[in-house]
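Lecture notes, unit on protein representations.

Consider one protein chain, 457 amino acids long.
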Amino acid sequence: MKRLLFAILATGVIVGGCGKAEKTKKESEPDQSVEGSTAEETEVKDAWWEKELEVYESTDLPREMTKDEKDLMRKPGEFSGDQYDEQAAIEKLKELPDHLTSEQYSEAIVKLVAEDYHEEVQELIKFDPTIEATGSRPDEEIDEPTVNGVHYAILLDASGSMNAQNKGGTRMEEAKSAILSFIDVLPKESTVSLRVYGHEGTGSDADKERSCASTETLYNGANDAGKVKSALNQVKPAGWTPIGKAIAETKKDIPKDAGSAIVYVVSDGIETCGGDPVKEAKQLAAEGIEPIINIIGFQVDNEAQQLLKEVAEAGNGEFTLANSKQDVEKYWQEEYQRLMRAWEKWQREGLKEVEAKQQDLMKKAEGLGQSVMKKSEIEFKHAEALHIALSKEGIQEEYDITNKVWNLLYDRQQKIWRYGYETGTKTWREAYEGGNKVWREIYYEGNNKWQEYYHKQ
């Protein structure tokens, strides 16, 4: 018996010794696992439900994103939208451990089926409801480029032929009367200059040099009919007709800060001083403010008509033949009627353009909001289906956990849906109100300008 007992003890010693040797050997091997973690824990950290969220980068945004908007910048899940595969998603869910919290289960489901909202979010943040009509205002297309800053330069022929009798008096008297009628209805903000030419000397050859050198500004300032009338009273028909020199000199009358200038030449004949009015008109029209030269030919013959037309065309203007004061006044009336028609056209086209742009912006705003709302509903539909599958597969059995997960998924859907609805509605309203504001501005400006020129006739 003693021998048997010894044998058993000896065996125990050998076995114990071998165990110690094995333990020593294992401790001497380098540790291949992550420090402080087991292999199982490392595998969990690399699991898909533990990975950090990937998000889209946002650029050139006019404002900082809200917390909710930042959350919607996450990249879509593997089974989002048309990629949804319920069975494959369930297989992924089977990989989840059974000790997760309701928040972790909910986030795991969202990671699989989250929709892509980033484009809509950025578009809604960048949404610009500004509406502008691109059509040029009439006063930028025809004879009165702007209401404010317009200078009217009137060049009056004071050659001896302007003393000829006409139906209502001399040509000069009728011209003066027509000019005053015109001045009286010009925009109050405009400036006016009155230059005469050929008003010195006589029509004799002896006085030609003196007369051809004569051109003078009698008035230059604010639109004041009384002062213009006083200046006109000084003018008496006298000598020759230096139209070219008068056109060349009139650039001195145009204020440097004038937005535009319209030059009206009132003459009863052609250049008689050897000047080149066509050349001078071209040079004046080439100035920075691009003045327009309109010529009113007062009782001129066919040859003079042709020459004066060339001068007007060189100055980007028009030639009008007038035989009486009534004809000159008719010319001014036609100018205003043309402006009335132009403003009416500008208003009509502007309103149409604004309405179209407003509708496009409203449609875009509504579409962006609806897209977010629709995607939130699709996402929740898929998430709810997977949530039910968790319970059926026995992965998530506790009632409290199951209920909380559903509530978290539902709350997410409601938050996203409200964002789409509220932000889309807000941008829609901004487009609607912005369009209405511009529409009203164009409508009233067109009406006011039309009435302004209507009452000037």
